[in-house]
Every structure is written in structure tokens, then in C-alpha cells.
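Example noted here:
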Amino acid sequence: VQLQASGGGSVQAGESLRLSCAASGSGISIDAMGWHRQAPGKERELVAGITSGGTTNYADSVKGRFTISRDNAKNTVYLQMNSLKPEDTAVYYCRLTGHDYNSYGERSEYGFWGQGTQVTVSS
């Protein structure tokens, strides 16, 4: 599985950006997709996630401002980021988790990261 992220950029505080992440390749069932971010000197953190069934979760810091959505037919996840703040500045990474079964019915779990996309918010 390969993940291709796009949509990052530089904006002013209060503006919006939309990130996209398309998954290609096959062979596994996708359980969830999401976005993480890592600011300089900080650990990578979950921003938002969405399961194959549509259940979403968000970091408290982005609730009410960011919206994650997913097009299952296109294996693409989107992150609409509104009312951006300087503290949202980070490299944003797409994440996919999934599973498959071997011929014995044994389940294997997988996780994949996309390349990061830079989001910079100026005050």
C-alpha cells in the first residue's frame, strides 16, 4: 500500500486548507485512515481518524475546526482544516491501518505512513 498526501501549504491564521491522502495498492482490508502531525521539537500526535464504518475521532485541539472525511470508493481521506492557528503548524502525515487473512485464517495487522506534507500558519 502506498499513500500519497497533498494539499499542504502556507496560510494566514484564520484561513483554511484541505489535505488529501489517496491509498493505492491492494490486498488488505482498510480499517481506518487518519492524519497525524509533528511540529518541530515535538512528538507526532494524532489529529483525526476515521474508520471504515465512518466513526471519527479528533484531538481536542482541533475539535470544531477540523473535519475528516473519507471516500471509500477512492480509498481517499480528506482533512478540512478551518480557522487555522499558528500552533497548527506542523508536518502532517497520513496513516492507514488494515488487515488481511492468510490461507489458515490467521489475521495480520498492517500500518502504513504517507510522506509528510507541510502546513505553515502565520499569525
Notes: The chain has a mean pLDDT of 95.
